[in-house]
Each structure stands twice: as C-alpha cells, then as structure tokens.
Amino acid sequence: MDLRGKQKSFLRSQAHHLQPIFQVGKGGMNDAMIQQIGEALEKRELIKVTLLQNTDETAEEVAAALESALRCQVVQIIGKVLVVFKPSTKDKYRKISEQVRRI
C-alpha cells in the first residue's frame, strides 16, 4: 500500500502527540528489536522510534532496515525520530488504517 501525500500528512498529524516507544542505541538494530517493533506495529499501527546519540546508525539506515524487514512505511524522519506506519492484519486493531483508507 503506497501512501499518498494527504494520507502521509494525516499520519504525521496523528503521530505528533505520540511518545517514542523504541530507542535504537549503541547496539544498533537487531532481530529482536525488529520483531518487537513488528509486534507493536501490529497492535498500534503507528509508532515512533528514536535514535539515541550513541548509536552508529543513521535514521535513513534504520528506516531502510525496518521497511525491508517489516514491509512497513516510514512516514516521516525528523532528526533522529522516525514515524513508522503499518496497517494491522487484525480487524480489532485497525483504527488508523481505516481512517487512512478513507482519505
């Protein structure tokens, strides 16, 4: 599902008030973290991931790793904060993706 401009804008507005729930630190991205991010995306659909100052990875590298591993979309990168979206496969968690589909 490719997002259009208005859909990305809506997702950015929804993510504005969210707190980052994952932090990429000195250890960088690993399989366990990618799996946890995938599980969080399944339940929430929209999350923020932040990169700590001591990480060696760039936001673009983390975005590319997440997109390829989870088939999600990085909606926005501001500094060291990524906004990540993936529609849930379960109906009961589909709140944001239903709104995005209507836009």
TrEMBL record:
UniProt lineage: Bacteria, Bacillati, Bacillota, Bacilli, Lactobacillales
SUPFAM superfamilies from the UniProt entry: YhbY-like (SSF75471)
Single Gene Ontology MF annotation: RNA binding
The protein, known as: RNA-binding protein
Record's keyword terms, sorted: RNA-binding
Domain of life according to the entry: Bacteria
Organism this protein belongs to: Enterococcus alcedinis
Entry-linked NCBIfam families: RNA_bind_YhbY
CRM domain boundaries: 1-97
Matching SMART domains: CRS1_YhbY
A Pfam family: CRS1_YhbY
